[in-house]
Amino acid sequence: MKQIMLHGKNDWRLDDIAEPTPGPRDALVRIAACGICGTDVSYVHMGMTPGHPIPLGHEMAGFVEWIGDEVPHLKVGDRVVVCPSDVGGGAMGTGGGQGGLTPLLHVPDAASGGRLFKIPDDMPLTTAALAEPLAVGMQAVNQSEAKPGERVAVFGCGPIGLMAIATLMDRGVEDVVAIDFSRERLNLAKSLGASQVLDPSEVDIWEELKRVHGTAPFMFGPTCATDVFIEASGADSVIGDVLSNGRVGGRLVIVALHYRPVPTSFLNLLMKQFTIRGSIEYPERFEDAIELLQRRDLSTLITHKLSLEEFGEGLAILEGSKDCGKVMITMGDAQ
Question: What's the pTM value of the predicted model, to 2 decimals?
Answer without folding.
Answer: 0.96
